[in-house]
Amino acid sequence: MALYNNTVLDHFQHPRNAGALEGANAVGRAFNEACGDEMQLYLEVEDGQVRRARFRTFGCAAAIAAGSVLTELATGSTLSALEQLGSGEVEGALGGLPPLKAHGAALAAEALRAALADYRRGCEATNF
Fold it and tell me: What is the DSSP secondary-structure string of 30-41?
């Protein structure tokens, strides 16, 4: 664990918003074939803003920490702001990751993209 800074360790050891979210109207899943890490992101969106966010991750410390910090970044954010959020912002919020563990931030960003796409599909289905 000496690879990780205190912020990463804190989010790994005490993940925020872990678990499924009943009532989520956007769900995204990301999977890293190279390492086997998997993340599901659940969002409750109301009036274009994320009211609640939760995650479930099977993976390394970096992936768990990235999911945790992503939920903090997402909660209260507008969908338009989240469209701009990428792995660099996730990694920055963690205070950086070792190069070999940067895939954790990429996994979180991919799960976010999938959740936003899921939300858009749901909106399109109800506005036909």
Answer: EE-TTT--EEEE
* Four-residue CA torsion sign, 66, 69, 70, 71: positive
Q: Which fold has domain 6-126?
A: Sufe protein. Chain: A (3.90.1010)
- Report the alpha-carbon distance of residue 16 to residue 39 in Å, rounded: 14
CB 112 within 8 A of CB 28: yes
Q: Give the start-to-end residue ranges of the domains of the chain.
A: 6-126
pLDDT at res. 127: 44
What's the rounded Cα separation, in Å, for the pair 7 and 93?
Answer: 9
Average pLDDT for consecutive 10-residue bins of the chain (128 residues)? 90 97 96 93 97 97 98 97 97 96 97 97 60
Query: What size, in residues, is the chain?
Result: 128
Pairwise CA distance, residues 38 & 33, whole Å? 9
Cα distances (angstroms) measured from residue 98 to each of 50, 58, 61, 93, 116: 29, 19, 11, 14, 27
CA 114 remoteness from chain centre: 10
